[in-house]
Amino acid sequence: SAESAGQQSAKRLLFGEIDTSSCSTLSTGRRSRTNSSVCALVDSRDRFFNRFWAEENCRDSFLSQVDRKTLPNLRLVCHDFGARAAPILFEEVSITFKTSTFARPTRLLALERIGHHVKTFKFNMPHLQETFLPPLIDDVTGEGRSFVYTPQIHKPETLIGKVKLPKYGSWEMTDMLIKQYPPLFHAATNIPSFIRALEALPTLSHLIVNCPGQTVGQRNRRSTVDYALISLRIAVERASLPLLSRLTFAHIHPGGLLYMHPMLGLGSPPGTAKCWRQIKHLSLTVDAISVEPTPANMRGDGLEHLRVLHTFFSAFSPRVKQLYFQWLGGKGPCPLSLDLEPALQSQPSVDGPSPKPSVPSTANTTPLSPSPSLPAVYFPRLTHLSLQSLSTPASHLAALITRHQRSLEDFAFEACHLTSGDWDEALEPLTAITGSSRWKGREVEVWDVPLII
Fold first, then answer.
1. Domain count, the chain
2. What is the pLDDT of residues 378-400, one digit of tens each?
3. In this structure, what are the phi and psi dihedrals at residue 377, rounded to the nearest 5 degrees?
4. What is the pTM of this model?
5. Which residues have CB under 8 Å from 400's CB, separation 6+?
6. Is residue 414 part of a domain?
7. Which domain holds residue 364?
């Protein structure tokens, strides 16, 4: 019946949309209009408001100042209000990944309805107690089992395909993981759901990844967050995102950069890294790395993490124009001058992920190969640079400025500690760039002045 059809269509309106599918006639005296025509108009007797709302600049300025909590209610007034407010309301979408985030079809359908408005997408997955995975134990022998992860990008559509291609390599391993690992792990490895979610965002221009909460003592533990990052990276490479130009890691652990690395090819064939060449603005806030072994990290994985960071920057260097980097929780070396760090000379280079039991091992793992030194990282198009919380020699900063003097327009070093030399030495390349040393006379002195009230 028409009543039941209206109820079914109303169930699909999850974001305040107004149903215009019904075209029943409303009779008010001599006046007759359909629902569609009523919803498409802003019915106001105030001609000044009508002129204001019809002016695009005025309307957009007004909507940009409306509180985000008020916008959903504004969309319910009429169809035109809903259509005009939707691009601003859904311009930024933030999700915290859980078991049902991408698994429920209704959530993906809802995301597809608003996805063409989304410009900024923030992916949150904090490190919690439930995100860390226990060791795999054989049910029969009671011994530990190793797990080599091979990402399954496409789900088999037929029963025969599911039998031939178990999700985790073999039926024995698949059965073991289903029994011993939580549902969050299986949701994090559901790559097709990640791909479908990002395919619903065709106008995405800014991707934000936020994975806070990992302590130094937890860096050697296998985590569901790392598997989710692998799925997210593969989804970015598989989905069509022609406008993606900004990539931000609001808070990430050092090992997380390994699984977001665009060139290591974990689950991606050659050529899928094309989307990463679109990135022009790169921002990273990384947990501070301890190079020396500590009681919380007896293995001392700091050098390996620094090499991962070095190769990560090398992968993005050809196109990036603006770069922001900050060490969080302590100071660390200059990330763009790691080729000058003595501790990284004549050490194994990261050509692929290291097969360690503490992190997801993959079938694409290649052994570490000895390398005499790291190649210098050069950003030929870098114009804006901001580095925070560094502990580095002045000579490293001077080499960084000299290396990028042709393209660099402005730079900022904040909360930085020089382990050797002074700031005159660190900024000495400015004399060669400007042709004089007058910049040294533009120092700003800050004084604490007592105020008596």
1. 2
2. 999 999 999 999 999 999 999 99
3. -90, 125
4. 0.82
5. 334, 336, 337
6. no
7. 94-320+337-376
